[in-house]
Amino acid sequence: ADAAAGASVFSANCAACHMGGRNVIVANKTLSKSDLAKYLKGFDEDAVASVAYQVTNGKNAMPAFNGRLSPKQIEDVAAYVVDQAEKGW
Ligand code: HEM
């Protein structure tokens, strides 16, 4: 996956709700490593796959991106999110 390409996917598709790794709709479900570990199923086993799954399928108020982003764009943005979570955004 290409996290650098994922950064521009994030700006265009995610930042409206997740600027700086935050969550404007459900404030406690941020993209920090600790929140991802707490709320995202499978994060501890395969972090990138767990983020890609949520982006593909959506969850509650988060829209599904299946068909709006390509599988490669989804892999790239998931790699970017995990990198940023590791770095503390
Ligand atoms: C949750 C990523 C776009 C709204 C999450 C989570 C991830 C994520 C990894 C889990 C966070 C956690 O549980 O702590 C992304 C990515 C996006 C994107 C990579 C772009 C491709 C959006 C957009 C919105 C949104 C555009 C608003 C319209 C939400 C909400 C949750 C969430 C409401 C909480 C869902 C729940 O568990 O109830 N997002 N997101 N996301 N996201 Fe996104």
Judging from the principal axes of the Cα atoms, what is the shape? globular
CATH-derived architecture: Orthogonal Bundle
Mean model confidence by pLDDT = 98
**Which ligands occur here?**
protoporphyrin IX containing FE
CATH class: Mainly Alpha
**Number of strand segments:** 0
Summarize the biggest pleated sheet. Answer: none
Residue share in helix: 55-70%
Task: Explain the overall architecture.
- By secondary structure, the chain is an all-alpha fold.
- The protein has a single domain (1-88), classed as Orthogonal Bundle (Cytochrome Bc1 Complex, Chain D, domain 2), CATH 1.10.760.10.
- The protein is built from 5 helices and no strands.
- It has helices at residues 3-13, 15-18, 33-39, 47-57, 71-87.
- Helix 4 crosses helix 5.
- The protein binds protoporphyrin IX containing FE.
- Protoporphyrin IX containing FE is lined by residues 13-14, 16-18, 23, 25-26, 29-31, 35-36, 39-40, 51, 54-55, 59-63, 65, 77, 81.
Descriptive key words:
89 residues, Cytochrome Bc1 Complex, Chain D, domain 2, mainly alpha, binds protoporphyrin IX containing FE, single chain
Task: Annotate the secondary structure layout.
Blueprint (H helix, E strand, L loop, with lengths): L2 H11 L1 H4 L14 H7 L7 H11 L13 H17 L2
Helix pairs in contact: 1-5, 4-5
Task: Write a concise synopsis of the structure shown.
By secondary structure, the protein is an all-alpha fold. Helix content is about 55%, strand content about 0%. It has helices at about 5-15, 15-20, 35-40, 45-55, 70-85.
